[in-house]
């Protein structure tokens, strides 16, 4: 690690008062710890994660803090920069636990980093409430101390396949002729997105005609898009965090690749609509959350009120990564209150029995630590704005289909 990056980590620690972590109770402060991506490949979403945590802490403290057994505690978070590297994340969480005395961990950004950290928190029997590790493998390892507030990755684009089935049936088509193309990053999260799309397509008998993976450092999707031109799929699915979203949108636009439906992950956090304008129109975007949803809680009010507060605080509209990270902190607040103690094992047990309404949606964990109470939603970019189009019962806009050919769009 460079001297400069050590400086970033130490400054982040000092800014949050990390030295007082071991004296949390006597200082009337509950300290949470988090290794998040402040630099590296995931730095954009790492910032979203940190901002979501910080807004929750600020709001809870404004409202008098956390009531634990009749005593009020303030919250704060000790941060380190994991540099978007799993091994570094695991090392820093061990440091938080062993050197800083932190007893409660908030998760990092990404499935890969969460997977690296989970064995550490499990080893020390320290709870981790994570909001940004969606790989379903996290919840098949028998972990007792890992709890995820978000929908798992295989569900991210389920609504896109459901929507494809709806329009196919409306056209009177045999869904066995409705072709699906998959182009995803070769990482744990996107692999699980891919697996979910494959399973969903099989439910409807839709054939997978392209099934490609690309490395993290790719800057050109031409080989996959050449196949798209040749095989003419009805639905193109792209997954690869922020970089994959930007690469997919740019490649389809610059290459003038025609496809009736295109769905991807991370559109909003990558600011696809903002960066590509009308050229991003018609793209479908899987999302964990939307500000228009009828979710509310006692800390922020409605999801829309939360979004307004977030934007005022950080000067950008909240992507779902911010909202789900806020929910992760609120799970801890609720568990501390219900446990009535800061005993780690009792707090862990209280987390396991969470059934909490938040601005992000309901949070309720099954025996594996997975949230089983919140569905995914699907945006479509329309006139440069993200419009909620699925599930149909919560949609605020009509799904526009099919995507016009580029020859028509560029007139």
Q: What's the helix and strand layout?
A:
Blueprint: H1 3-15, E1 29-36, H2 43-62, E2 66-68, E3 71-81, H3 86-98, E4 104-106, H4 111-124, E5 128-130, E6 146-148, H5 158-170, E7 180-185, H6 188-204, E8 208-214, H7 222-231, E9 235-239, H8 241-254, E10 261-265, H9 272-276, E11 284-287, E12 296-297, E13 301-302, H10 303-314, H11 320-339, H12 344-352, E14 355-358, E15 361-364, E16 377-382, E17 385-390, H13 406-409
Helix pairs in contact: 2-11, 3-4, 5-6, 11-12
Provide structural commentary:
- Helix content is 40%, strand content 20%.
- Strand 10 (261-265), helix 9 (272-276) and strand 11 (284-287) form a beta-alpha-beta unit.
- The protein folds into 2 domains: 3-151 and 292-364, Response regulator (Rossmann fold), CATH 3.40.50.2300; 155-287 and 376-409, 3-Layer(aba) Sandwich (Rossmann fold).
- The strands form 4 sheets. A 7-stranded mixed beta sheet has the order 8-7-9-10-11-16-17, sandwiched between helices. Strands 2-3-1-4-5-6 form a 6-stranded mixed beta sheet, sandwiched between helices.
- The chain is of the alpha/beta class and 411 residues long.
Brief characterization of the structure:
The chain is an alpha/beta fold. 40% of the residues lie in helices and 20% in strands.
Features:
411 residues; alpha/beta; Rossmann fold; 2 domains; seven-stranded mixed beta sheet; six-stranded mixed beta sheet; 13 helices
Enumerate the spans where pLDDT stays under 50 for 5 or more consecutive residues.
1-26
| Global Rg | 21 Å
Number of structurally distinct domains:
2
CATH homologous superfamily placement of the largest domain: Response regulator
Overall SS class:
alpha/beta
Main β-sheet: number of strands, strand sense, barrel status?
7 strands, mixed
- How many separate helices? 13
Q: Count the strands?
A: 17
- Second CATH tier, the architecture of the largest domain: 3-Layer(aba) Sandwich
CATH topology name of the largest domain? Rossmann fold
- What percentage of residues falls in helices of 4 or more residues? 25-40%
Under CATH at level 1, the class of the largest domain stands as Alpha Beta
What fraction of the residues are assigned to beta strands by DSSP?
A: 15-25%
Strands of the widest sheet, in order across it, are: 8-7-9-10-11-16-17
Distance linking N and C termini:
52 Å
Kindly report the average pLDDT value: 92
Q: From N to C, what is the helix and strand string?
A: HEHEEHEHEEHEHEHEHEHEEEHHHEEEEH
Give the overall silhouette.
elongated
